[in-house]
Amino acid sequence: MEEAQRLLTVSVWKLYRCRVRRGGLRLHRSLQLSLLVRAARHRYLSARAAAGILPGPEITGAAESGATPGPEITGATIPVPELPAATESGATPGPEITGAAESGAIPVPEITGATESGAIPVPEITGPTESGATPAPGDPQCPNTPSADRPSNRTERKWGNPLRDCTGDHRNPPSGAPRSESPGVPGIPPGRPREDPPSPVNRDLPPTADPRSAPGPTNRDPPPASPGPPRSTGAPRAGQKRRSCGSAGPGRGPVPSKRARLEAEAPPVPPGPPGRCSGPPAAAFGFLVRAVGAC
Amino acid sequence: MGAGLGGHKGVWGAWPWCLRTQPCSQAADIISTVEFNHTGELLATGDKGGRVVIFQREQESKNQPHRRGEYNVYSTFQSHEPEFDYLKSLEIEEKINKIRWLPQQNAAYFLLSTNDKTVKLWKVSERDKRPEGYNLKDEDGRLRDPSMITVLRVPVLRPMDLMVEATPRRVFANAHTYHINSISVNSDYETYMSADDLRINLWNFEITNQSFNIVDIKPANMEELTEVITAAEFHPHHCNTFVYSSSKGTIRLCDMRAAALHSSHFFEEPEDPSNRSFFSEIISSISDVKFSHSGRYIMTRDYLTVKVWDLNMENRPIETYQVHDYLRSKLCSLYENDCIFDKFECVWNGSDSVIMTGSYNNFFRMFDRNTKRDVTLEASRENSKPRAILKPRKVCVGGKRRKDEISVDSLDFSKKILHTAWHPSENIIAVAATNNLYIFQDKVN
């Protein structure tokens, strides 16, 4: 756990330095750092859960079937266990880390890889993986299976995504870019055969093609809450502030707390060999992560 | 170790040619690429400051037999300048990422140089004559009064001091959203490709405002990105075939012909689960891929190994060479000092019997594929006296260290050899160590 925490600290600072270095964000470097951050974070949380500090989520489905916890692969159907505590608080269902609220631990915000579907592309360790890799012997079994998580994009909007913030403008080609023509050869998809069909040649799409990216690469605005009961428009009551909004539609519902949003994340794939369990308080680390995310 | 590699009963001797001799290395002087041309007559280097320096081998003369074909500076020019992308508020580095020579077809030399965003075609030509005797202007270039011209004369070419001039003939810009990592000239000598992190474009040398996108691995949702392109190269003989490597340690052999659209070959070695760690993904990333001169093999370099693949066998490499396996236990430290992200290159010798790659402490390693012997040599000023013989080095991985060995903890990780080049037909190598260029030759007894 200590090793994982140290790696997390170092990696987050490296990610921050990546953003400010000359020449812009390097996509390859950012990807490598992000993968390591996810792996270290998962190891850290697993170690804390195993040490009894943070009780892990109830994974009834996986426990009964005896399936080895592993990452969720795009398109795979994995039963999602119940998370009553998360739903009661109104937070987006995510890993059950009730101890986090008490100790002040803040999991590392989702930086890359996680999608709304819950897919965690890499690294594949076990289960229906593409690589067929198996967990290293002695690796503590993480009770937090990715299938238990429904990662939200709120964290990504809050902290930004270094992959989307990299030097390329993923929505529009550079101004004055020549017309690129494909001679009919589709973009050769990477990786091993997967359940999803390979993506076609992907030219830069107009902004409207990706509505989620429309707000901007680092949208720190609070996520839109679910629509609540309708309320009448017009002048606010005395003593009440009136929030200006784009439309005079239904008012806002309860907004989940920041901590609940941060906790509602998918853990990364478990890494290799076991690490040592010890380290400084997680609250300080959580502060570091928040500081980097705000840059 | 007296016997050399490559079938020669010789040893490696030093030509103490240093590109720069400043005691402290300037960041702009750090060599970022080295490349021999197709005949080996010219050697081009690019640095982080955007400059290209071309060395030319001297003709061997009977009067000075000891100066057997030494390399001297032939031309120096500023290839790329720092730019600023105002649209994205990003600075574009002038660092030369790659240089590739075109085959010589006339008296001039042509090469491609690229930074992160722009590829340029340069013409390097000599001028040793100048015209004299113009009618309308005098020798200073000033125009003459036409009314004062009474005699008509024919301009003649008179010899002058040799002048080498480099002129940009083509600029291929605005086609890459991400950072260009590779360029490769096709065997048809009419096209070339440029590869960035997510796309590969095919260019015609005559057309600068259009390119064909032949590979695109950018996902529709960037959050699903799992790998990037790290290197790409055309087959040396088949103009329709090229290969590209990825950060996941995979290699794709692609065929651009219409009938072979869906028949790309996928090379990947299964991962050893016992070696898995936090850093497995990082060290498995391929930093360089090279076709053999014969076109039958592919060589790849990741952080710890060099692998040789047969194009006809995809499931595993036919040869694996450990470059510096003693660093496997130091990965955490190497990660903290960013050395784990270093991108080492690898090269074949002319006969594809020996491969070479760099390491730390200014070490570079050669592996003889036939005899399975390997040697570690060091590029340093102290060990590179004129005509000195390079002494093989050895790293002590544990136990009692011998007198001439160096321990792993004593390695200087700031001295790294990332870029090397091998003469296409002779045993002459160029090794770039930070801001110094070393040229060594195999001395035949």
Automatic annotation (TrEMBL), chain B:
<dbReference type="GO" id="GO:0000159">
    <property type="term" value="C:protein phosphatase type 2A complex"/>
</dbReference>
<dbReference type="GO" id="GO:0019888">
    <property type="term" value="F:protein phosphatase regulator activity"/>
</dbReference>
<dbReference type="InterPro" id="IPR015943">
    <property type="entry name" value="WD40/YVTN_repeat-like_dom_sf"/>
</dbReference>
<protein>
    <recommendedName>
        <fullName>Serine/threonine-protein phosphatase 2A 55 kDa regulatory subunit B</fullName>
    </recommendedName>
</protein>
<keyword id="KW-0677">Repeat</keyword>
<dbReference type="InterPro" id="IPR000009">
    <property type="entry name" value="PP2A_PR55"/>
</dbReference>
<comment type="similarity">
    <text>Belongs to the phosphatase 2A regulatory subunit B family.</text>
</comment>
<dbReference type="InterPro" id="IPR001680">
    <property type="entry name" value="WD40_rpt"/>
</dbReference>
<dbReference type="InterPro" id="IPR036322">
    <property type="entry name" value="WD40_repeat_dom_sf"/>
</dbReference>
<dbReference type="InterPro" id="IPR018067">
    <property type="entry name" value="PP2A_PR55_CS"/>
</dbReference>
<keyword id="KW-0853">WD repeat</keyword>
